[in-house]
Write a structure and sequence with these properties.
homodimer; 697 residues; alpha/beta; seven-stranded antiparallel β-sheet; 24 helices; 21% strand
């Protein structure tokens, strides 16, 4: 158990605000605790001598509790928590609502609560929480109507109603839990804390949750990465869609970070993201009880051809693949199955198969080292005893230590078999696709638990130079920088074309003379965003024309916008766009996850096809490499259609260097290198735009 | 009822091969018929005087039956069918297996069976069928263990085992059926026949099915288009994935057509394609019982914020949208909901809502004309009576004639409510996403039933000229044609650049002189596929260089492949690729659906991004137009990034003209116009390749 062990296994729980009043929250919590809790319950209320026959103390200090559950009205709740802290209680669950979720007065109260918690180093759940449960000590410190049954899932939820709904349903399905937490407003303890705690708890087999937001994205990623080496995490993070994000924001005041950030952040964290309640529990049940497959190859054993084909489609839809049997296995099937059967995967044992033939086929398949897991898929027949098939399935799964999913189709006749399967932790489904999907979750987690996370490379950079360039915004009315910040990229070792910004025509000539071949010239002004539209860009200027080009650019800019601040004219080496691929490397700062890196090919690929990929920075080399591989248009980088491949390692390094830059400087709010031209000989950052918060420098 | 009415409502059923032998198919069918059938059952078997106490006739002619169910061994089955036809029986179900599914002898037997059926104009189901059911006359003419309960779904399946599995489950769930057909090998009657029949049957509310293949794609599309104006069709068509297609092929010998053809064919047919068994029945249950929404806007009414957000995400994932309430509705909500509630969609009536508040909120929402349908979503609370909420839901749904989906979350406490809902045809789900998805199916079908299918345009073309050009393959050892068939496109009014194929350098000069500007010259040879690789294409040849270019092209071709057949050199007008967008218009012939048209942008868009779309030909103008709109890269055609839009109507017309060409000539096995260059001023087909089957000309 981790740091929160006492929160989930207290010896004495004090209920601050305990009462007997029917229908009150204080009564409901007392009822729930008294009904089951292994330890001592102490009601705290100066107005009563006893509550439900239990002597009442007037002061938390007199309770000698290691957990305080606070249900007093909001106006006195913070004071109650302070007294708890003062008296040495370290674990507090604040049920009371009327904090951050209710306007400015509540928000102030929540800040105060956080300060008190910090002062006394409290493990504080809530406020605005349904409470917590832990079946290890039979503690139901919630005001919900149902206690949890014991089991291996630890469950956190940002919706109390969802907890009551799930428990009502789960108790009916014999699905058990270890700990349950209603997160409430997450003033102190948040999802990262519980993930860490449950990762350290040997009794937790799988962590599940419903979240509307994540407080500290990077902290969560780091915590989850460690935990998911041993313990799977499956989450529904709602607000996936625009409509959902808006609803989440109005529900819990969650500031909507982009779903791209959540999607990549959860992926980087090793979290399995479920898209629905059904998927959450289907995945969690298998993950909590079944062995992990050593490979992704599924064998389907069925007595029903049609459903076998449906299951095969589901395998095609999943990350799994159909196992190819060894020659030996095929021979054994040939000897053991009737001629009308199918010895290839999906294996058809034929409708007249009795239990022996079915068991035999499953055994042959599981014995094949090319098989990582199996689906036992059956239509009801007169010659097949489902309960026996269930026993055989469980026995063989255990014998070979390979996960098996069950799809015994039918109605009531399935029930005895489903009981046998459930006791062994194998859910049974009517739909072959659900059985396959539950194996897919196992396989996904097998990959996650085998992940090795590299450290980000630390490049040798000129951080001071970068700081100085960024500081240029301090004296200006505008916090945006453009090509005048190209040196920022140089400072972080990102290649840029030769060139400089000049403020006279003769200087322009001098720079151009130093550059081989023709040059590109661009007006540099924070006030002129669309340079091309006003003729502010000249491509292929020969040395002889540089002087006039300079004058012309300045004139155009002045005519276009007389009051524009003009920094000068950039004179830059021509980059051969035809021999390269235009890419974009960028960063936006997400409210939860911080710096979110973007990569894609330029032009239509980003603008029209939206073919982009994201990572939360800092990224390791392997992650930067994945970004260059997973966009749809990646083959163009690798030299499709007879072209020479671009220098992809240079692109990967640029992503890493940008990652380091934006991690080093939280003041950079957004930054785009567009285009970063990638040729067979390297990369060049041709243009850059960024926004800087001077207050963070 | 349609043409097959007698098949599903016979007065007398003869069982040819009836027997009392335990465990036999003949016995099982007799048992099933005797148990329930409203009409007369006549066993036919020369070896018995009676079967199960019913007098047995030795000859089908003596049975006076209007339906014969044939279960005799394969060797005498065809003869039994012949005798049935001879004696005037028009409806035959062949249960017997050992036909096309079992090698060449069986295939011959199946051909014979088809001939007999044709001779006597039989409505023949099977062979290799589980049988048929019709609850209208309580007929279970299958050898499965369960009879269906009455209901409004008519169900066909290419898997008998799937029928037994579904019935076992459905009977437990109180899901009823009208007719059930095990299609077997579909020697005579196939899915199109049953779709037509059930479309004419007023007792069928929804047609559902499991198919591994469709026999006659175009016929099925036409039949389904008509039926789906009034009756929804929901199908699982397996073999969606490569693995699944392979499994389907080994299961029923279905020749794998491309899934692109099925996907577009089913879409063009107006069929809702379910991807899983769960989706099939979730959709079908709603479609069979609920009114269609007049618009796609959903109101979510909930007492639980978190699940409300999840449901909103599900709406975001679906084709539905979140309803925006009228100002009047918002005012009414404000007056009726507590301040902590949410009057915007999803409407949160808050956890302390009793039945009155919940009902009231649903009524306010359904009364808003911006609301097309609703989800009633509830977590269990102490103050809410689920059964009453269910009655309110049903009542209000009926009062406003708007569909409502139910997600009453919880365990056993939900059961009485679920019963009330089920009686009104509203399934209840634990998962909000499933409730939303079932509404989505209603909305999808509302669009389908409102579709108007245009007739394909008949262009004035030169069919004889086309025939002559195609006939060029007759004298050759190769059935592929290239640019030498450009006139084929001209014959069908598809614009091509000026140019001709010549076989002398002086002719080349003459043609080039007639063409304004420089020309493109290409070697024309069926034996040289990759012309560019051997330098067989010259772009931008000026008039002066044409002679030498001709000689050079011929020399290169001879050197490259001395035995290549060289038809000549094409001299063609230059097409300005830079001012246009390269597209591809093509056709492949699918084994089931026939001519499958393809459209996409050329180059990387087709080759790397696989950004293509398909339609079964012939297509109407509206369908051709959709093709140009639904690819991801469509904005490029419409003039993205500051370019002039291409002449999209000319592209649409080209697709239609190609559609007419490949419909007129089944001999064209495949054809690609690549590129078809689309500029603001029209289109030009720059290159063409096709394969022709001379035997079909």
């Amino acid at each position: 158990m981790g740091e929160l062990s006492e929160l989930f296994a207290p010896e004495t729980v004090a209920v601050v605000g305990a009462t007997e009043r029917e229908g009150s929250v204080g009564r409901a919590i007392m009822d729930n605790l008294v009904a089951d809790f292994d330890g001592t319950v102490v009601p705290v209320n100066p107005n009563y001598d006893e509550v439900l026959g239990i002597p009442c103390v007037s002061d938390i200090g007199a309770a000698d509790a290691d957990l305080a559950v606070v249900v007093v009205p909001p106006k006195i709740a913070v004071e109650a928590v302070r007294q708890a802290g003062e008296s040495g209680v370290r674990n507090v669950v604040v049920i009371t609502a009327g904090f951050g979720e209710t306007g400015s007065e509540g928000a102030a109260r929540e800040r105060e609560l956080r300060e008190v918690a910090e002062q006394y180093d409290l493990n504080l759940v809530g406020p605005n929480s349904l409470g917590i449960m832990s079946t290890g000590v039979d503690m139901n410190a919630t005001f919900g109507p149902e206690n949890a049954q014991p089991g291996g899932m630890s469950f956190m939820s940002q919706s109390g109603a969802f907890i009551t709904a799930v428990l009502d349903w789960a108790n009916d399905q014999d699905i058990g839990f270890r700990d349950v937490v209603s997160l409430g407003n997450k003033a102190v303890l948040d999802e990262a804390d519980f993930v860490r705690e449950w990762g350290d708890d040997p009794e937790t087999d799988v962590v599940i949750g419903y979240l509307e937001g994540i407080e500290e994205g990077r902290e969560f990623i780091d915590a989850a990465r460690e935990v998911t080496q041993d313990t799977p995490i499956v989450l529904v993070k709602s607000g996936r869609t625009d409509a959902g994000a808006q609803a989440a924001s109005s529900h819990t005041g969650t500031i909507a970070g982009s779903d791209e950030a959540y999607e990549t952040g959860l992926e980087q964290a090793g979290v399995i993201r479920a898209e629905s309640v059904q998927e959450l529990f289907d995945s969690a049940q298998m993950l909590g009880s079944q062995p992990l497959p050593e490979q992704d190859d599924v064998a389907i054993i069925t007595n029903a051809g049609g459903p076998g084909v449906m299951a095969t489609d589901a395998v095609g839809d999943s990350g799994l693949s159909m196992a190819s049997f060894s020659d030996e296995t095929l021979d054994t099937f040939s000897e053991n199955l009737p001629a009308e059967g199918n010895i290839y995967n999906p294996v058809d044992v034929v409708g007249d198969a009795g239990n022996d033939r079915f068991r035999n086929a499953l055994e042959i398949a599981l014995d094949d080292e090319n098989v990582g897991c199996a689906v036992v898929l059956s239509a009801p027949t007169a010659v097949l005893d489902y309960a026996q098939l269930a026993r055989d399935t469980v026995e063989l799964s255990e014998e070979f230590d390979k996960p098996v999913a069950a799809c015994f189709m039918g109605g009531q006749r399935v029930e005895p078999a489903a009981e046998v399967l459930k006791d062994a932790g194998i859910p049974n489904y009517f739909d072959p696709a659900r059985a396959v999907d539950s194996l897919d979750a196992l396989s996904e987690y097998a990959d996650i638990s085998a992940r090795e996370y590299d450290e980000p490379t630390e490049f040798d950079v000129d951080r001071e130079a970068a700081h100085e360039i960024l500081s240029a915004v301090k004296g200006r009315g505008d916090n945006r920088l453009g090509v005048e910040a190209m040196d920022l990229l140089d400072a972080y070792g990102i290649p840029t074309p030769h060139g400089e910004i000049v403020d006279s025509a003769t200087d322009a000539e001098a720079i151009a003379a130093d550059i081989e071949g023709d040059v590109v010239m661009k007006i540099v002004s924070p006030d002129i965003l669309h340079k091309s539209d006003i003729g502010g860009v000249k491509v292929g200027v020969s040395d002889d024309d540089v002087y006039d080009a300079y004058e012309d650019l300045i004139t155009r800019a002045r005519n276009y916008q007389p009051d524009a601040e003009i920094i000068g004219v950039q004179v830059q080496e021509m980059v051969d766009l035809d021999s390269g691929v235009e890419t974009i490397v960028g960063m936006n700062r997400d409210p939860q996850f911080g710096p979110l890196l973007l990569f894609g090919l330029g032009g239509i690929f980003v603008e029209i096809l939206e073919d982009t990929t994201f990572r939360v920075a800092p990224v390791a080399e392997s992650e930067a490499k994945e970004m260059t591989e997973e966009i749809d248009s990646a083959p163009l980088l690798r030299g499709a259609r007879g072209r020479d491949p671009a220098d992809v390692p240079a692109v990967v390094e640029t992503i890493q260097r940008l990652s380091q830059l934006v991690t080093d400087f939280p003041a950079i709010l957004e930054l785009d290198i567009n285009p970063l031209v990638a040729t067979p000989d390297g990369v060049q950052a041709v243009d850059v735009r960024l926004t800087v918060d001077p207050d963070q420098l």
